[in-house]
Specification:
single chain; alpha/beta; 7-stranded parallel β-sheet; 28 helices
Amino acid sequence: MRFFPYEEPYPNQRAAMDGIANAFAREQDVLIEGAPGTGKTLSALVPALEFARENDKTVVITTNVHQQMRQFVEDARAITRTEPIRAVVFRGKASMCHIDVGYEECQSLRDTTRSVVEKEEDKQQLERRQEQLLEQSRGGDSGAAEARSAVMDELDQIGDELEDLRETNVCEHYYNNLVKDTGEFFSWLFDDVRTPDDVYEYADEHQLCGYELLKEGMEGVDLVVCNYHHLLDPMIREQFFRWLDRDPSDVITVFDEAHNIEGAARDHASRTLTENTIESALHELEESDDSRSDSAANVFEAFLGALRRTYDESFGFGEREQVGENWSDVGIANPDRRDDLTLEFLQSYEGRGIDVEVELALQLGKSLDEQYEQAYKDGETTSRKECQTLQAAAFLSSWMEDGTKLGQHPMVSVRRDGGTDEIYGRAELYTCIPRQVTESLFEEVHASVLMSATLRPFDVTEDVLGIENAVTLAYGMEYPDENRRTFAVQTPALFAKERNEESTQETIAGVLSDAIRFTPGNTLVFFPSYAEAQRYYEMLGGSGLGGASLGSLMLDEAGTRTEDLRQRFVSSENATLFTSLWGTLAEGVSFDGDDARTVLVVGVPYPHLSERMEAVQDAYDRAYADRGRDPGWRYAVEIPTIRKTRQALGRVIRSPEDFGVRALVDKRYTSASDTMGKYGVRDTFPPEERRELIDVGPEKLKFAMLNFYAGHDAYDGEPPSP
């Protein structure tokens, strides 16, 4: 394949590229799972670019992991050395704006600036016309003199209009885009694959708007690299394809880390409305003399009162005092009737009718929004005001219309304002089934490739995302078997009750101590939570409480800068990092070679049980009732949990030359899981990974590790004594 940037692909890469190319010809989607370092990106990108070049299409490759975005840029640059392509790396406006304004303000600034430039162009044309007429009148053409007089009147009028416009809000960077020759920028842009930071620096130096230039430069390009939200948000996606000047059917999408699409789509689809927004809308309505204001205020006040009463009545003794600065959910759902907030709203509301007054509020909100737009364009305001009435009305309309639909779960959350110490709430329509967002995307584009090291089981991925008739390709870890060992350690099953047993904690601490001592290098330890990570960090002496000499122990805590911690860890020798499997170090981060030799996953890291999780389970149970027993548990809990576990195990053994140990510390990973019903998780792993799992007792792990690492001459000097 002419786009492949290296001498020869791996055998699996060649097979994958052929399979993907054939799928594109049949307009089929592709699900591909491959171990880290096996070239999944190029396996998808090369046939996609070839098919796109031959069939006049554009490839969009996307991820939600910053490190992978950088890898895409490197891969694209390597491809350009073989076959020149026009590529754009696109990032959102917020990080590329030179004057730091919001989206709505940017829209208004752009429109006003364009109006200024158009008026200036009109003025220049009229000036040229009056000069021509002046020459004709000097030659004796009496009609030319009369025509010139009319042109001069137009010039005076345009001059006045321009003077008024220049007093309004204009973006000088965008103005320069419109009046300067930007050909040099585009020559520079497509001479290589430029990062958004490169574009920002170039534009800043030349006083241009790099974001708008990128949008202009995207038309008909071969490749775009971007973030998930450009494709998963329906409104942004529509604009994005317009910038590409492509119909959706002329776009091929490639999703990396595709196991994350489910959660990202759910986040994009969920809608919220805070107390603060409703209060701002009410203040906005007080200043309006529109006849619809009273109706809008009436329905907003009724909903605001219902929201406050709903969360107030939910607090038990002492619970109000425990509310912190992070959002905390309040259960309002009922199995056989509308949620508590809606019932409170319906019972307390008095007026012309909720539907009628919400519709009037929507109409008024749109009218006010247009007024704010015009005021900003005219320079009457220094910032583009957002219409709170429109936001509140749009949410209320969705709440009443969609709140009972399958996959939509009404929620209330509360938090404490750090400045005032007051508690306030929000209402939310939480989207449980992501295919409501993704299905339309995969239907409208030509084809998509979804790739990940943990995408199986494929049938579940297809169900959850709304993909049909996909080509499925799976390539296990084809690095030498002798370079890795994967152990399932027969400790007690770490259910909530057992985790607090002193004997269980002593057993786990012993396993960790042995694993750290017998690892010739760094050790990664993942736990179901940060609290569990801290518990064993302290038990093993990380906080100065004593314990065996185990090298440098490091603790990852929620809210800390993990990249700084990672750098400190990989630059250390014989260090151990204790972290949560739900943190940012469990996926998308490589620990190559000596960076980490052993990785342990302690316990089965089920997500925190919450109303949201229960809502997702219930929605899946109802949507996929024909998929066998308990589909909600399987789709919402078990499979995402094992994907997380597999992602964590994949932090080590990143190349054919790498070697190391992976250990799963919990009885539920062992062959004994066959007797544990739905809580036994061994069978959830792909078949080839199950075959690699070696059961060992807690006291035997050190001997197994000693034998493995000694066989690789990994110990510097004498190995530790068992």
